[in-house]
Amino acid sequence: MPRPGSFRSLPIRYFFLILDIYAGGAWAHLCTVQHRWLMGQKMRMLLGFSFVAAGLLCATSTIGSTLEDIKSSGELKLAYRADIPPFSSHDRDLQPKGFTIDLCGIIAHDLSELLEIPDMKVTWVKVTAQDRIAAIATGRAHLECGGTTITLSRQETVDFSNLTYVTGTGLMVWVDGKIETIADLEGRRVTVVAGTTNETVLKDTLAARGINANLRVVDSHVEALKLLADRKVDAMAGDRATLLGLGYASQGEDDLVITVDMLSFEPYALPLRRNDADFRLAVNRSLSALYLRGDVGRLWEKWFGPYNVKPTSLLLTLYRLNSFAE
To answer: Is there a single domain that holds both residue 108 and residue 232?
Structure first.
């Protein structure tokens, strides 16, 4: 016999009625708990979004944009290197000159018009192969106007403009040095500049091919060229276009030659501050316009014409591919 007070002692209709009451109460309680939990989640999400938004606002107000910085200061800071002709060097009065220097001069003119600063000051900041990326990342300069190769590791620190040139790592040697390819460096002396992609390429290539060369790493192209000119090394590694400019300026076109080896692919662009889309767009708009106008061809003739070299089909394609319409 069922115990008094138990569900089994009640008629079946009361059992379902009580079950409905209990279930309804439990469901109501569950809904209340769920509602409170969801409200809590929403509040936490809103607070999270608020903190993120506040962080972004603080970051924006702290960092600002490059265009805002130039507009407020009236000054554009351009980094350059003194040792990589015909791209970037300086004259006897220590004024920057070169192919990339002229590119940046056109960009500076376009920025002054964009920002409506007719008397915008252009300050040239001298950098080296070792500190050029840091100069942009820390704000010492807004744009670097040298001969810098785009790499993924460098893009962890800075952004880049569209491409401005393409070359590759090569070797410059004395015409009587009996070095025709990198294989001839076995037992010979070779120099390269620290902090360049050429250093990495040269070391990797020597190791991969098992070539036992005496490698001397120096701080600048000037130092490397002096070692070669004084015959303290047998070869100098660097970007082929830079080697061409250095060799021609130093020894003329008969004594120093560049070997047939092209050990790497080196696409050049202009480093600028990371995560600044507006400034990058302004720079790229200027580059596209000067490519479309044909200014880049005139600059080529000015800076590479004296070496009796012509732009390669690859380089011409590069300029065509980086000529974007509005």
So the answer is: no
